[in-house]
Design goal:
The protein is of the alpha/beta class. The chain is 36% helix and 22% strand. An 8-stranded parallel sheet has the order 6-7-8-9-10-11-12-13. Strands 1, 2, 3, 4, 5, 14 and 15 form a 7-stranded mixed sheet that branches. Helix 8 links the parallel strand 10 and strand 11. The longest helix has 19 residues. The chain is globular.
């Protein structure tokens, strides 16, 4: 039994107000599981780790990343600075397609090696659970290769893998998006499910991605194979993708800059989490922010993630993502911290395992050298992590 004492806890327990603060608290773990999180006076005996008054939060969770890829898109960044739009670059063969070429050429071992520094940057700021999407292979073999490479990162953090075959139209299917969706539904999803390599299925429902009808076919195939669904929705326009995702009980709908009130209401009714991605909003210099007021009014849980990817959010800092969510989207400190813990766990369907400091949960902790939790959101370029505990160690 390990007992972290002399600590201030931000438990994020939904049974407590705000951040679930316990000023004079302790966390006890037996192996990988928390057995106690509460006032120090009632803590069990065990091997004591003195936190010297530091704050403990749940380990941070990045619930939307594209960490596994080859190549970079710094040149496209230069083009955008010269005035080109994301859509123009994509339609000219850049964007996702350029990363696909590099990723297809890389081996599985190379992809894992390339992803490790990105993951380590997140870990250095207290991340203990990270979602990783495929979507840069766009053939059955290359998508499986990406998912295996992502799973190989599981020696350093808890990895949730998401199959994103419906990310972009590969060049060999130019002019035939329905044919490519046939491949996704009839070959890729069955292969991914048989190999047990994905926890969920995602799609990019957008004018430069796939239509709602094509997206629904992907959801139907995922359902046939017992896989949960998620969706890139309403990033560049409102195709009512969030409402479609909600109809299929999606774990999350992500981006949501162009979400309307009807979409927010549908998400609330379905229990679908909104994943906000301020890094992409910032990097693309977007001017339409997600409708935070509508999400709050509807009671939709809001998560915050990096969207770490080579083209539109080359971000590997959840601390900076929180600051961006606060400054650009006007989230509160409590909303930001819930967004990278409790609500991020919901977005992955792992709320019964991680995301709060409660008995029965996995002992994933982040221990911080701060005077108050607001510092984790307020400061930029500052990493006050004192220690990270993953699965009790």
């Amino acid at each position: 039994m390990k007992v972290w004492r002399n600590a201030r806890l931000a438990t994020l327990s939904p049974r407590l107000p705000g951040l679930g603060v316990i000023e004079d608290g302790a966390v006890a773990a037996d192996g990988e599981r928390i057995v106690y999180a509460g006032p120090v006076a009632d803590a069990p005996a065990g091997e004591v780790i003195d936190c010297e008054g530091r704050w403990i939060t749940p380990g941070l969770i990045d619930c939307h990343t594209h960490l596994v890829y080859a190549g970079d898109r710094a040149h496209e960044f230069e083009l955008r600075l010269q005035g080109a739009t994301y859509e123009e670059i994509a339609r000219a063969g850049g964007g996702i397609a350029s990363t696909v070429t590099a990723t297809r050429a890389a081996s599985e071992a190379e992809l894992t090696a390339l992803a490790r520094p990105r993951l380590e940057a997140l870990i250095a700021e207290g991340a203990t659970t990270v979602e990783v999407k495929s979507g840069y292979g766009l053939t059955t073999g290359d998508e499986l290769k990406q998912l295996r490479a992502a799973r190989a990162l599981g020696d350093r953090a808890s990895i949730a893998t998401t199959f994103l075959g419906a990310h972009a139209l590969p060049p060999e299917y130019a002019g035939n998006p329905d044919g490519y969706i046939d491949l996704v539904c009839e070959a890729m999803i069955p292969a991914v499910a048989e190999a047990g390599l994905a926890d969920a299925v995602d799609a990019f429902c957008e004018g430069i991605g796939f239509t709602p009808a094509q997206t629904e076919r992907v959801f139907q195939a995922a359902r046939r194979h017992g896989l949960a669904v998620k969706l890139h929705a309403e990033q560049l326009s409102n195709l009512e993708g969030a409402a479609l995702a909600a109809r299929y009980g999606a774990l999350s709908a992500d981006h949501l800059e162009h979400l309307d009130e009807a979409g927010a209401a549908a998400m609330a009714q379905a229990g679908t989490t909104a994943v906000l991605l301020p890094g992409a909003y910032y990097f693309l210099r977007d001017e339409t922010a997600p409708p935070i007021g509508a999400l709050r009014a509807a009671g939709v849980p809001m998560a915050v993630a990096t969207d770490s990817n080579p083209g539109t959010s080359p971000l590997t800092s959840l601390l900076l993502a929180m600051n961006m969510a606060a400054t650009l989207f006007r989230l509160t400190v409590d909303e930001c911290l819930a967004g990278v813990t409790r609500n991020a766990a919901r977005a992955l369907g792992r709320q019964d395992q991680v995301g709060t400091l409660e008995a029965g949960k996995v002992c994933d902790l982040a221990i911080w050298d701060v005077e108050r939790p607001a510092e984790l959101v307020y400061r930029m370029g500052f990493n006050p992590l004192h220690a990270r505990v993953w699965r009790g160690n």
